[in-house]
Amino acid sequence: MEGVLNNVRGTAELLAVAGTDVVQRWDEHTLRRAFQWTLYCQHLHSRFHNKKTIRNTMEQHLRATHGRLTATFPGYTAGIGRFEDLSRCRHLLLSRLLKNPVLPRAIVETLVANPNPVGSDEEEEHQVDAATGHCTQLIACKSACKVLLRALRQMRPVACPGAGADAEVQGVMLMERLDAVLGGGGDGDGGGGDAQC
Question: Do 135 and 93 form a contact (C-beta atoms < 8 A)?
């Protein structure tokens, strides 16, 4: 069990580092290994989610590791702090990498061009394709929502001053939800007009 806990701690540290300038030195091999570790953690989640004793031990270890990482890395909040977070390690890594402004262009191109940076396992490839498709849909929805909200705000005062208020509220709520699902990145105006992707 000690080896498993060390591997999980290492993956949590990997997620923290993915948001730093260390990624400037990453290459495709490093990227592939990082995603392999996230798959390992997701496998642990599916294997032990019904085993309460193991789950509780891992949960305690994850909380301690997460506390240490948040103290070490300023601004680090989204990571593996609970057992349930193991199930979304790939998403967390991808999100941290894509939000990192110093991520090398070659790595960004690899992530965009190759939806499966891990390898050729058919099941993993299906999971990555599904995740990539889901991400693409979310980003498309967020973009469409931004465009529609902007158009609604520009049209409403001219056409009908009181019309569309409920649509605008629903649009803002949708933007906030999309920001939460995509890991934040809003501009602080409640998900209104110009939220970042």
Answer: no
> What band does 130 get if pLDDT is binned at 50, 70 and 90?
low
Q: Tell me how far apart the alpha carbons of residues 127 and 91 are, in angstroms, rounded to a whole number.
A: 11
Q: State residue 166's pLDDT score.
A: 66
**Tokens at 57, concatenated:** 């031990």
Q: Specify the 3-state DSSP secondary structure of 21.
A: helix
pTM confidence score: 0.59
Residue (of 176, 181, 9) closest to 88 by Cα position = 181
Q: Which residues contact 170 (CB under 8 A, 6 or more apart)?
A: none
Could you tell me the CA-to-CA distances from 36 to 97, 129, 166, 187 in Å, in that order?
15, 16, 45, 33
Q: Which residues lie below 8 Å from residue 160, measured CB to CB, with a gap of 6+? A: none
> How far is C-alpha 190 from the chain's CA centre?
20
